[in-house]
UniProtKB/TrEMBL annotation:
<keyword id="KW-0687">Ribonucleoprotein</keyword>
<dbReference type="InterPro" id="IPR029064">
    <property type="entry name" value="Ribosomal_eL30-like_sf"/>
</dbReference>
<protein>
    <submittedName>
        <fullName>50S ribosomal protein L7ae</fullName>
    </submittedName>
</protein>
<dbReference type="GO" id="GO:0005840">
    <property type="term" value="C:ribosome"/>
</dbReference>
<keyword id="KW-0689">Ribosomal protein</keyword>
<dbReference type="Pfam" id="PF01248">
    <property type="entry name" value="Ribosomal_L7Ae"/>
</dbReference>
<dbReference type="InterPro" id="IPR004038">
    <property type="entry name" value="Ribosomal_eL8/eL30/eS12/Gad45"/>
</dbReference>
<feature type="domain" description="Ribosomal protein eL8/eL30/eS12/Gadd45">
    <location>
        <begin position="2"/>
        <end position="83"/>
    </location>
</feature>
Length: 97
């Protein structure tokens, strides 16, 4: 699903771009790599809580980057609401398995 979102141009990645998307109200979902630093995780957790954007911690930097066809990425934001909801459903179904 993330690859589909990336191909359609509805994903921004990297810490600066992700932060900008959240603060401008364009992000509907933020995903942060599990192996990111504690400081990065706290920064995005606090920011997404303030702006009321769902956040998930998933995979590692290489896995997250590969999911969108890029090199390693510590964070990304999905900027399409429908795609974000589809990714959230997928992430939640993976947690219950």
């Amino acid at each position: 699903m993330l690859g589909l979102a990336a191909k359609s141009g509805n994903v921004v990645s990297g810490e600066f771009s992700t932060e900008k998307a959240v603060k401008t109200g364009k992000a509907f979902l933020v995903i942060v790599a599990d192996d990111s630093s504690d400081n990065t995780k706290k920064h995005f957790s606090d920011m997404t809580a303030f702006y009321e954007v769902p956040i998930y911690f998933y995979s590692d930097k290489v896995g997250l980057g590969n999911a969108i066809g890029k090199e390693f990425r510590a964070s990304l934001a999905v900027t399409d609401e429908n795609l974000a909801n589809a990714v959230i459903k997928k992430l939640q179904s993976n947690k219950t398995e």
